[in-house]
Amino acid sequence: MKGKKECPNCQKRQYVSSRSTFWTTFLITMGFLMPMNVLRYYYEIGWPLIILAFVIYIPLVLMLTPFLYKLSNTGKRFGKTVE
After folding, report:
1. CB neighbours of 76 closer than 8 A, spacing ≥ 6?
2. Model pTM above 0.85
3. CB–CB of 68/22 below 8 Å?
4. HSE on the CB side for 38, CA within 13 Å?
5. What's residue 77's pLDDT?
6. What is the pLDDT at residue 2?
7. For the chain, what is the HEC assignment?
8. How many CA atoms lie within 13 A of 16 on its CB side?
9. What's residue 83's pLDDT?
10. β-strand partners of 4
């Protein structure tokens, strides 16, 4: 969902906002990395359990990410409008 998408109602192009992309990526990566590092360090959980948690976490994230994106009528990249 990084690119342009046409709205079925108004037939205009919709873009994922850069702020939405940043926060979604941040929450997805930190939502996995922080708890796994804490569990690995303090509770000495092994790699097989971390890999299992990752395998379970990825489908959940893929199902939830469309609900986290916000769309905009203008595409901006690095503060400049992109068409």
Report:
1. 15, 17, 18, 82
2. no
3. no
4. 6
5. 62
6. 55
7. CCCEEECCCCCCEEEECHHHHHHHHHHHHHHHHHHHHHHHHHHCCCHHHHHHHHHHHHHHHHHHHHHHCCEECCEEECCEEEC
8. 15
9. 59
10. 15
Residue with tokens 């948690």: 53
Classify residue 74 by its DSSP letter.
S
How many whole angstroms from its chain centre is CA 10? 26
- Residue 69 · residue 5 · CB < 8 Å: no
- Cβ contact 12:73 at 8 Å: yes
Residue type, 42: Y
- For residue range 4-63, what is the model confidence (pLDDT) as tens digits? 677 777 888 887 777 787 888 888 888 888 888 888 888 888 888 888 888 998 888 888
